[in-house]
Amino acid sequence: AAKNDGRGRYRFYSSDLHDKAEDRRQLEDDLRDALDRGEISLMYQPVVDAGNNLIAGFEALMRWDHPEKGPISPAIFIPIAEDANIISRLGEWALRQACDDASKWAGNARVAVNVSPIQFANTELAAMVASALSNSGLAPERLELEITESVFLGENADTDNVFATLKKVGVRLALDDFGTGYSSLGYLKTAPFDKIKIDQSFVRGATESGNRNAAIITAIVSLAQALDMETTAEGIETLDTLDLIRKLNVSHVQGYVYSRPLSNHEISERLARGDLHIMPTGHDVHRYD
Ligand code: C2E
Ligand code: MG
Ligand code: MG
Ligand code: MG
């Protein structure tokens, strides 16, 4: 709504800003109760071994089904949760839920859980992870925590300590969205990552001739191999890109070309059948769920 600024002019711009801030505050309020109202859930996207099309694990991805607005993307609500001090509670819930779910799966598929840098600032994180593992009975080596480079921003002196404690607990660590943040290769010297996840932005358009992304992916893969880390290419949508990613020796693939995120029910049934083989298709890539 436009507002009269008192001098006879209407100030559309500031009132739009006001509406936006109001929307966000509303969303923040709604998010505070979302977990208790049962509106938050996890979906699981297969992570596939690029060499043999076998499922190696699943990434847990949070979903919010808003009662009026419908599904809201985590790209929108996670940053709000981080600003509003809700992320620790949501993150702990996701971790415990994912461990519970994975502990009931047939076989040894891994589960990867995204952890916000804000959770890393809490010295209790490693104890919470250990508790989630022992309550669920999930073997530590089946749990992978995904962290973005921004965890190294700022003078968070304890990051090294938290990593070391988590390695003692026995979980795996993955560096998420690699190459999009404030990349400094320095932290790779000491941080004990088991995997680098190559961000979608390098994958997109990687097949176009003259594109530099393929060269960058090659460099990331050789860096990871030298440091004894696995690689996952994120956001692979087409068979052409999958082809290229395989030629570049990326070890794992995650993307709509194999599967979009699935419910725990769907993957539990699949795993109960022992059906770990998954065929890439190029179809139906533009649905969101
Ligand atoms: P992310 O961790 O990098 O997760 C990968 C994102 O790529 C997911 O988006 C996934 O659905 C999407 N994706 C997978 N394959 C394809 C593909 O072939 N094409 C395209 N276009 N997208 C693909 P999603 O689920 O919307 O999540 C967005 C981001 O929200 C995640 O990025 C992660 O940073 C954050 N997030 C999600 N769940 C959690 C959570 O439980 N905790 C925290 N802290 N962050 C979360
Ligand atoms: Mg992730
Ligand atoms: Mg990612
Ligand atoms: Mg991402």
UniProtKB/TrEMBL annotation:
Domain EAL: 24-275
The protein's name: EAL domain-containing protein
Organism listed in the record: Allopontixanthobacter confluentis
Lineage, top ranks: Bacteria, Pseudomonadati, Pseudomonadota, Alphaproteobacteria, Sphingomonadales
